[in-house]
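BUG: 3D viewer hangs when loading the predicted structure for this chain

Environment: internal workstation, default settings.
Expected: structure renders.
Actual: progress bar stalls at 90%.

Input used:
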Amino acid sequence: MKSFEEKELKSGLLLAIESSCDDTSVAVMRGRRLLCQKTASQAVHEQYGGVVPEAASRAHLANIVPTVAVTLAEAGVKMEEIGAVAVTRGPGLMGSLLVGVSFAKGLAQGLRVPLIEVNHLQAHVMANFVEEEGVEKRCPEFPFLCLLVSGGNSQIVLVRGPGEMEIVGATIDDAAGEAMDKCARVMGLPYPGGPVVDKLAKEGDAGAFELARPKVGGLDFSFSGLKTSFLYLLRDKLKENENFIREREKDLCASLQRTVVDILLEKMERAIAEHEEVKDVALAGGVSANSELRRRFEELAERSGRRCHVPPLRFTTDNAAMVGAAAAWKADRKEFASLGIAPYARVRINEE
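Structure tokens produced before the viewer hung:
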């Protein structure tokens, strides 16, 4: 019987699974080239204003088998042609991760192919390496700096190589996406709040309101004070006018978004100055879908004389293609996981 390594190298086809939060995403990859990706989202959380872990894990159980089947069918790939199975091991919601990891382990064992575990945060960075048929792609060159911004993480990462990542700056409290979502919630905006803020901000005055910008040393961030100042602004203004939020929501969103982006890019600019050897900068994470952040990040890169890499919108939020891209490097080095692995809810980007 052929070894796992021989079968993986022969087929070159990888099935990647992402289930760290509320999206069940599956991708078929040939190396870092995406053949097909399908994602099943969960609308059940909208009524609660946030992800309900128990509901998320139950939805993953219902979605994972049909999502795998549809992805394989549209990729034109048979199950027995898969040479390796990759899965997000963490960080994320434990119940959601258990579904993905358990399914991936069972599938790898049934197909007798290698299992590849992927750090979710590293996968977001590796989204900048996903290749697509017919799409010209220039990937970042190592080492590069990556601004990773999501609902749960805000950090500046020095990427020396695949899996070789050093955190040079991080939030000391709330993440940028978390702060925006919470501010959107107190305004009564639908969940998820980040995309709604982005949409409304396009028609608002970004200079209408001044919000707190916490002073934090080095390259670290803080968004807790911003969130508190936004809450106090609403409280004071509502005392004067009970219709304040409805009348000024576009200006509020524009001011909030501008402040968050200012804080992020101020530290990113400082990081670039401190790492002169770096010629490429990249953006990653769910908040990298924000139009204002994308535009100004590109301007910062040009101003700093660095090559800029911003992933397509479909690879910014949680997706299996980024998991596959991260796993492709491990497959090349034959870094396979034991079938005895368990998911982890918390882990840093530079830990396995």
